[in-house]
Design brief:
With 755 residues, the chain is an alpha+beta fold. The protein is built from 13 helices and 35 strands.
């Protein structure tokens, strides 16, 4: 202790020694010597004395300390010559260059940026302490990538003009892999079943891509919580993780993880009670409790119960309701009773709704989707519906809702809606490639014209079979109640002869007016009335069925079209849905006044089931049925056809189904298409909602019956990328159930340029 005290005293007087103690004097002038890069004015600014002032030992010691503290100098001394104060300095060298050798794991620009963030950069003063810090940080980065054996050697080379070059020589070594994960103490569940729950795993078929065989503290923490949830959701209330050991072999290539656990006994729920200020009928509150007496305890159901009661109180304006479930353990009987203590807090109302982030979309387009009203009592359900409705507009990549308290008020909150807009205009280019070559299509659509929420679309399809020109317009809010109106005008030319699907042509010119009436927040009924004029051109080698139709009903046909439709949309998002469903049903008929009399009934249901945080199951079913009226058949150009990227992937468009004597598809009055897809993020882009991958199974049939024997099916992979250039969808499908004469198309894609 005495030695340390002496050392501190010595350090304290060193600056005074360096200043060469002298008698006080009046400074006539100040001269700086030894400075090469540092401006004299910079040195003057750190001196506690100016010309004409008295210089003392205390000021000299202060000057020495201040100049050392700048970090610019490695030596500072003061001298006096006939009243002239001479400040002699020796500057620290500057960093002339930083070089990395052997760094394949990291981009060198990123490494230089990281060095700059800790103070080591070209042009800055060299500090060996910062160099040691930089070396440790680089080592830490390699450890985070699983390269525990990385070796880093630092070389400092002196250069002219008091500069140095810094070089990091790196031997990266191999990535350490997890060789074993052991769980000690598991009796109820098999160890293999428990480790199967983990994100971390030993090397396998896909771990080269997922990197899940590389140790990560964050991933291990998440896996431990998964393990805890697994036990707590199955009644093991006293489950505990006793220890976690992560060891690495001496060669730093293999990692071993050992987890010690205590399972404890399994508990059942003996009783559930409510206490506190409940404010809603107790019978209703008890129905919200998912835990039931006699059942095995589950933490997930416990959490769900507290949230359900909180949300129910939130619907009545109690935004800050607090529900706590207090357990009462009977260890002897292995039972647990829960008392839910309810504190509703103060009832609050929404003072103001604030919208931000919408640079193009008008405020009213967002506000009219709000089901929470300004000045109304806070409602958690209404706020959730509001967010979902804004998200389903399809104009935004992100929709965030916050309800901060109003400063100085205990019974008010604001509703802040922030959005991130995406391009809503699309120039769509589509292509398919298969046995029949390339098919192109295009269109221009603006879903949010001038930020008004109105839809305007112009489509041109230049495929070999169909040439379509169409113009459509929809005003979603014709009235304040959400009644929509719109119209469609189109010209459609069909020429199957170009692909040897039948020698004939049809040309249709038509239009219709539409009205949509919302009956609930999720249900809309639509009505439409239109007119079509269709001309049919036949040739000497046209199919007999086409010639027969023309001979019976004429070359020109007119139709007065009426249709009624219903749609229900409960999806959580229009762009990246993970839950909910969308259902549609419609009836179209040829009304009196036209030569075509028929009807067609269609129904479609799409549903999303969240499997995990990343994986979503998507199911789609589409069925249609048509027939003629008044003794007339269903017009052949109104038949259903299956095949193509939008119905049955793996098959060329409109080729699945019965064929005539020439092998040309004829379609049919019945259609049934189904698909099942598992949607998941693109590997390595988990948080990027612009890219999604799916593994799909499609099946479908079209013709005069829904016979299973006529069913075609294909399986494959698809990628949907909402790129900066527009939406891109790529699919590759392999038919595994087909029939002779089917035209297969393995690869298909669409590309849209957004504006």
């Amino acid at each position: 202790m005495r030695l340390l005290r002496c050392l501190f005293v010595l350090l304290g007087v060193l600056p005074a020694i360096a200043a060469h103690a002298f008698d006080p004097f009046v400074v006539k002038d100040i001269r700086i010597e030894g400075s090469q890069r540092t401006e004299a004015g910079t040195v003057f600014s750190y001196l506690p004395v100016k010309v004409g002032e008295m210089m003392t030992d205390d000021k000299a010691a202060q000057a020495i300390r201040s100049l050392y503290a700048t970090g610019f100098f490695r030596d500072v001394s003061l001298e006096v010559d006939n009243g002239v104060l001479i400040v002699s300095v020796q500057e620290r060298p500057s960093v002339a260059q930083i070089e990395f050798l052997g760094t394949k794991e990291f981009n060198k620009e990123d490494l230089l940026k990281g060095m700059r963030s800790i103070g080591l950069a070209e042009g800055r003063i060299f500090d060996r302490g910062l160099l040691d810090k930089a070396e440790q940080e680089l080592k830490r980065q390699y450890i985070s990538r699983g390269k525990y054996s990385a070796q880093i050697t630092t070389t400092i080379t002196p250069l002219e003009r008091n500069r140095v070059a810094v070089r990091f020589d790196v031997v990266e070594g191999e990535i350490a892999k997890i060789r074993q994960i052991s769980i000690i103490g598991s009796q109820v569940f098999k160890e293999a079943d428990l480790t199967g729950l983990f994100k971390l795993r030993t090397p396998g078929l896909m771990t080269w891509f997922s990197k899940d065989d590389q140790y990560s503290k964050q991933k291990l923490g998440a896996d431990l919580e998964t393990l805890r949830s697994h036990y707590l959701d199955r009644g093991y209330l006293e489950f505990n993780i006793d220890s976690t050991q992560v060891s690495i072999t001496p060669d730093k290539k293999d990692v071993y993880i050992t987890i010690g656990i205590t399972e404890g006994p399994q508990y059942t729920v003996s009783e559930v009670k409510l206490a506190g200020e409940i404010l809603i009928p107790q019978a209703e509150a008890l129905k919200l409790v998912k835990l039931k007496a006699g059942e095995v305890f589950s933490r997930a159901r416990l959490t769900e119960s507290t949230k359900a009661i909180s949300d129910r109180l939130g619907d009545d304006g109690y935004a800050f309701a607090n529900v706590n479930a207090v357990p009462d353990l009977d260890k002897a009987q292995r039972k647990v009773a829960f008392t839910f203590f309810v504190d509703p807090g103060r009832r609050v109302y929404v003072r103001r709704i604030n919208v931000a982030g919408n640079t193009r979309t008008r405020d009213e387009v967002i506000r009219r989707e709000m089901r929470q009203l300004e000045g109304g009592w806070y409602s958690a359900n209404s706020i959730t519906k509001s967010k979902q409705r804004v998200d389903r507009l399809g104009y935004f990549t992100e929709v965030n809702v916050e309800t901060p308290s109003v400063p100085g008020a205990t019974d008010q909150v604001d509703l802040n809606v922030s959005v991130v807009e995406k391009p809503t205009g699309t120039v769509l280019l589509g292509a398919g490639f298969g046995s029949e070559g390339v098919v192109l299509s295009g269109g221009v659509t603006q879903q949010n014209v001038f930020g008004s929420g109105n839809h305007l679309g112009v489509q041109v399809n230049t495929s070999k079979i169909n040439t379509v020109y169409s113009l459509s317009f929809t005003q979603p809010y014709w009235t304040v109640d959400g009644v929509s109106r719109g119209f469609d005008v189109y010209k459609r030319n069909v020429d199957p002869s170009s692909l040897s699907l039948g020698q004939y042509r049809t040309s249709t010119l038509g239009g219709q007016a539409r009205i949509g009436v919302p009956f609930t927040d999720i249900d809309t009924v639509s009505f439409g009335l239109g007119y079509e004029d269709t001309g049919i051109t036949v040739y000497a080698d046209s199919p007999l069925r086409i010639v027969s139709y023309v001979n019976t009903f004429g070359q020109y046909n007119t139709a007065v079209l009426g249709n009624v439709g219903w749609a229900r949309d409960t999806r959580d998002s229009a762009i990246y849905p993970t839950s909910g469903a969308i259902s549609r049903a419609s009836v179209e008929t040829g009304l009196p006044g036209g030569t075509l009399r028929f009807y067609k009934v269609n129904a479609q249901h799409q549903r999303y089931f969240p499997l995990t945080r990343d994986f979503t199951l998507y199911l789609n079913g589409d069925i249609g049925y048509g027939n003629g009226l008044g003794g007339k058949p269903l017009p052949f150009f109104r038949n259903y056809y299956v095949g193509g990227v939008s119905s049955l992937r793996g098959f060329y468009a409109a080729t699945v189904g019965p064929k005539d004597a020439n092998g040309d598809p004829v379609g049919g009055a019945k259609k049934m298409v189904g698909s099942a897809e598992v949607l998941f993020p693109f590997p390595g882009m988990r948080n990027d909602k612009s890219v999604r991958v799916s593994a799909f199974l499609d099946a479908g049939v079209a013709g005069s019956s829904y016979a299973f024997s006529e069913l075609r099916a294909a399986a494959g992979l698809a990628v949907l990328w909402v790129s900066p250039f527009g939406p891109i969808k790529i699919s590759a499908a392999q038919p595994f159930r087909s029939q002779i004469g089917d035209k297969k198309q393995v690869f298909q894609f669409t590309f849209g340029s957004q504006f």
